[in-house]
Design a protein that fits this description.
Length: about 725
């Protein structure tokens, strides 16, 4: 088994923040950009309720003269402006319930003291108009705005019908009561509105069947009871528990009580016969406990508070076999309390935090992710303070933005940073302590590769900021298990980062088949995963390996290490044996072309049949486009029978070409991707089977090198940095 080393226990426990700070300090980060100082100077505009309707961000803000009103932004100062001063003067109309309905914004605004008004907006002043006014007594308000196929459904109170289901098509005539489910002024109190296969489903009480599952197509006759789960006037849905209707794997999953099995998990396909008990997790009349429900694309998760020392995580994929306990969480030692909070889904994963606190051992906050299996429930990031017992370590709001989790990790000693995760590790997005404080994670909104949010600066107050997440990708290089390293050809490898799991190891011996021995002397080994922020697209991934342990430190060699590598969930290396391919203390590279669809390139190094996976360096670059070479013959040329290779690639000044035939018998041509010839026979023979070219004068980019000999033609591609 491969050896590895640890920092002294005292250092690891006392200063976990120090390693994180040093790591972050070595990374050059882009910074957020102020979109506009809406309320000029140090005063706050307090942007909130950001909603994306396609290409426009709507928000509510106060410019200091019009009060809180509706604004919009395209990410530029000139494109960030007041949409309409609905209530003239400094009091403002305080828009709320902002909802995107197929590109049209619906919202509520206070125009007088008697009630509230439903509005819609296309982003222009003229197109921001009243839909209907409502006179609501007391604190009653329209709620649960839900878009179903371009129709806005909501819950509304009127004296004659009580709290019932309404809908709006954006006109006054089309904003009407759908059905008085509990006739007269009594309430059916609809809740849990959800769009399931183009039909609205919700929970309501018609006064006869109790709180049960209903559906509506927007017509009175099409608004019907799906099933009386707990027959008679008894409630199928507890009035003390949110209905929590969750669409998972083509089903609606929800906790309900049939009066026999207690409160348990049910499923529905929208029909009476297809609405049934899924799993009696607590057999008999005893009820299961449901709290903090969150659904991914293929599973429903919920947590159970057993005691102050034990928390349980459950999940269901909609089948009895796929419903059950994922993991029990308890403290590693007697005494501390534990809490499980923040259950949030993003893509096919669910995220949550656990917090352990003890006066003796301090506090640990840990961010987790789970795919619904025990082995797939792993730590994303840990904040630990073993000697400072004050509760200064905290993960704030977890928010799903476009299938990616965003959150802040706060430590009073190193500040607060905005981070993101797609499941494999955590990536620092931007350091929000560069003059910014009080970043509002709740306002995070994503549009066209840019993240918008509210943050505070001492000079400008609380205003709207943006951060570009997907700048043009050039290259990302990591020295796995080691510090930053600059190769002889000027390629720069960052210090090891963006990784979860594994250990580091270093040797001092020379490594063959490379001029960059130091790059291959360090490594990360074990089972580990990288999450690299690349943006969407197709990329070339090069993994650098060298077997430095078996056959060097310990006896062994071929067969001593076999492991697997998955890239973007696809197996790329199976039972890979470095020594079998390259030998011991010899550099070797494996290159793959992969497509990323979620902005983050995931690499998973998985144990095979012998020892542990390892890697020395990782390179991610954009694949070069193909192009025709200029001045090529019109007939099909015979491909050179002998192979050739170029290095370094990318090149900065010197390009070396190795051949399997004499170098003085070769003609060369270098063309750019447009086909324009840049160099013609600009080479010199430096050895019998090696030639050299000076490419320093070439602009940065991708080039094609054509080698012509009596045996044929070969075209090689290289990158000039």
């Amino acid at each position: 088994m491969q050896h590895h080393y640890h920092f002294p226990k005292m250092l690891r426990f006392a200063f976990p923040w120090l390693a994180a700070w040093l790591l972050m300090a070595s990374i050059t980060l882009a910074q957020p950009v102020l979109v506009k100082d809406i309320n000029p100077g140090a005063a706050n505009s307090n942007p909130a309720l950001l909603v994306n309707t396609g290409n426009t961000i709507f928000l509510v803000a106060d410019d200091g003269s019009t009060g809180r009103e509706l604004w919009k932004s395209d990410g530029t100062p000139e494109g960030t402006r007041l949409v309409k001063d609905i209530t003239p003067g400094a009091s403002g109309s305080s828009p709320h319930n902002l909802t995107n309905v197929d590109g049209t914004l619906f919202f509520l605004a206070n125009r007088n003291s008697a009630g509230v008004t439903l509005w819609k907006s296309d982003g222009t002043e003229a197109g921001t108009v009243v839909v209907r006014e409502f006179a609501l007594p007391g604190d009653y308000s329209l709620r649960d705005f839900t878009n179903v196929n371009g129709t806005l459904f909501f819950v509304n109170y009127e004296n004659t019908s009580g709290m019932e289901l309404w809908k709006s098509d954006g006109t006054m005539e089309g904003t009407v009561l759908v059905k008085d489910i509990n006739p007269g002024p009594r309430w059916s109190a609809p809740s849990g509105l959800v769009n399931y296969n183009g039909t609205l489903y919700f929970v309501a009480d018609n006064g006869t069947n109790g709180r049960e599952l209903w559906r509506s197509d927007g017509t009175e006759s099409g608004t019907t009871l799906v099933k009386d789960i707990n027959p008679g006037v008894a409630n199928g849905f507890s009035p003390l528990l949110s209905p929590n209707l969750n669409v998972v794997n083509g089903l609606i999953l929800f906790p309900a009580n049939d009066g026999i099995s207690g409160l348990e998990l049910w499923k529905s396909d929208g029909t009476t016969e297809g609405t049934e008990l899924l799993n009696d997790l607590t057999p008999g009349a005893g009820s299961s406990v449901f709290s903090r429900l969150a659904s991914t694309d293929n599973a429903l998760f919920w947590s159970v508070n057993v005691s102050y020392r034990e928390q349980l995580l459950y999940k269901s994929d909609g089948t009895p076999a796929g419903t059950g306990l994922v993991r029990a969480f308890g403290p590693p030692r007697p005494g501390p309390t534990i809490g499980l909070t923040g259950l949030t889904s993003a893509g096919n994963l669910v995220y949550f935090t656990t917090s352990i606190y003890s006066p003796s051992f301090g506090k640990e906050e840990r961010l987790w992710r789970s795919d619904g299996t025990d082995s797939g429930t792993t730590t994303v990031q840990t904040l630990a303070s073993y000697y400072d017992t004050s509760p200064t370590l905290i993960f704030t709001i977890l928010k799903n933005v476009n299938g990616v989790l965003y959150y802040t990790a706060f430590d009073s000693r190193v500040g607060s940073q905005l981070r993101r995760s797609s499941g494999s590790g955590s990536v620092l997005v931007t350091d929000i302590n560069q003059g910014l404080t009080s970043v509002s994670i709740a306002t995070l909104t994503y549009i066209n590769g840019t993240l918008y949010y509210a943050a505070t600066n001492a000079a400008t107050g609380n205003e709207l900021y943006k951060y570009t997440l997907t700048p043009p990708f050039t290259a990302l290089r990591l020295n796995a298990g080691g510090p930053a390293y600059k190769a002889l050809d000027s390629r720069t490898f960052e210090a090891d980062n963006y990784v979860t799991g594994g250990n580091t190891y270093i040797v001092s011996e020379e490594v063959a088949s490379t001029d960059d021995d130091e790059l291959y002397r360090t490594e990360r080994w074990g089972e580990f995963s990288y999450g690299l922020l690349t943006g969407k697209g197709t990329f070339r991934v090069t993994l650098h390996f060298a077997e430095t342990y078996w056959g060097n430190i310990a006896e062994g060699g071929v067969g001593s290490r076999r492991f697997n590598v998955d890239i973007e969930g696809t197996r790329q290396l199976t039972e890979y044996d470095i020594a079998a391919e390259a030998g011991v203390l010899t550099a070797v590279q494996k290159t793959f072309t992969v497509t990323v669809t979620d902005d983050t390139l995931n690499l998973d190094f998985i144990k095979g049949s012998a020892d542990w996976p390892k890697v020395s360096a990782i390179e991610v670059t954009s694949p070069a486009p193909t192009a025709r070479l200029a001045n090529t013959a019109s007939h099909t040329e015979e491909k050179m029978k002998a192979s050739a290779a170029v290095y370094p690639n990318p090149a900065t000044h010197r390009l070396v070409v190795t051949l399997s035939e004499p170098a003085d018998r070769v003609a060369t041509q270098v063309a750019d991707v447009t086909g324009r010839t840049r160099l013609q026979n600009a080479h010199r023979a430096v050895a019998q089977n090696q030639l050299e070219m000076n490419v320093a004068a070439l602009p940065s980019g991708v080039y094609l090198l054509r080698l012509q000999t009596k045996q044929g033609t070969q075209v090689l591609r290289f990158v000039k940095q």
